[in-house]
Amino acid sequence: MPYGQHRSSAKPRGARPGHRSFGGSHQRRGSGNGVRRGAYIHPSKFINKAVSQAEEVVYESKHAFKDFAFSPDVQHNIIEKGYKIPSAIQDQAIPLILEGKDVIGLANTGTGKTAAFILPIIEKIHAKNKLSGQMFYSVLIMAPTRELAVQIDEQFREFSRGMRLYSALCVGGMNIDRQIRDLRRRPHVIIGTPGRLKDLMKRSELKLDSVSYLVLDEADRMLDMGFINDIREIVDQTPRDRQTLFFSATITPTIQALVNTFLNNPVEVSVRTADTSEHVEQDIVEARDKDHKLETLVTMLAGEDFDKVLVFGETKFGVQRLSDHLEHNGFSSVAIHGNKSQSQRQRALKSFKDNKVNIMVATDVAARGLDIPNVSHVINFDQPATYEDYVHRIGRTGRGGASGKAFTFVPTQTQNRR
Ligand code: AMP
């Protein structure tokens, strides 16, 4: 349902359903309405009537979880976790990974890709660990952000419960001495972000010569974040005869080059259907200036169906200020951005995930890769720098078939046409 017909008590001026008649030329916006470093994005790109669930082609899984060659321990933990039917990426990738193939998984976040690689890996190391007990340091999983690494670690722990398999989480922003201690305890699985992993290698605390399984998760994001050299250095230290699993939402020429050097005779599995953004109802909200934006945001948030709202801002300071402003106006809000310590971010994220606060204000980088269920609305208080960032942002809502809504603040039409 477009914004104009929304149940919300907030009805921002000018946000008309399906309105697409903004100034036709792709002029650059003046800096008076929030300075943007990225390219101008035409407001019509922020409007979309969501594809209704009924119009979507539902993926029919060829396997049930019990069809996969998993041991009873793994099967038990899948049931405990409550997964009933494999998602598309799980259905297609799990048998290949169990067979020992290198796999390129083209999948966005929210498709269940974590379980698609973690379950077969657990199966393999569990089986061998039971036989020989020699599977220490045998899995390395690299992810672009600390939060994503934490989420992978959480899934690893849940799915390996009762198997005496251990992991070490090696991410920046957290105490390195503790990670060194964890590494010395001979974990089976190492999960980390490239910068910290490299740091640990330099200190000779991390040796990768026994890695049998290497996972690169969200490889495209890792490249976006400038990790390419770190990744190459790390992967170079792992044995050539490892099994490599490579996940990315896109394949650019640089990514293809990495695939060619890192993977051996890979099989590609693609579950990318339409843009995730198609499932999200999107509309714009016009505002004259910063004060008007704040005022409008406060009115919108008072709307009754704004249950769990992720608000994006451009700068660390702006995000903190906005969150404080919302608190002063009686909303419960947390902020996550790069000026917060890792434990502060984790606390903020947890309170938002657990519905203790219902608004989280974030920068793009802080929110990357986060798995937060049931976000009802994404609000772009500041516009994203690129359309790709926009798609990542709004991908936080409308996940797993749930309906989601996204609103983007744009300057009022007259300003826009100037
Ligand atoms: P991911 O794409 O790995 O970040 O997963 C997105 C969300 O989907 C997570 O909350 C998972 O726990 C959930 N999920 C993954 N696979 C399944 C499944 N087969 N059934 C139900 N939920 C799932």
TrEMBL record:
A GO CC term assigned to this protein in UniProt: cytosol
Keywords of the record: ATP-binding, Helicase, Hydrolase, Nucleotide-binding
Matching Pfam families: DEAD, Helicase_C
CDD domains, per the entry: DEADc, SF2_C_DEAD
Residue ranges of every copy of the DEAD-box RNA helicase Q domain listed in the record: 63-91
GO molecular function, one term: nucleic acid binding
All copies of domain Helicase ATP-binding, residue ranges: 94-269
Homology family: Belongs to the DEAD box helicase family.
PANTHER family referenced in this protein's UniProt entry, alphabetically: ATP-DEPENDENT RNA HELICASE DBPA, ATP-DEPENDENT RNA HELICASE RHLE-RELATED
Protein name: DEAD/DEAH box helicase
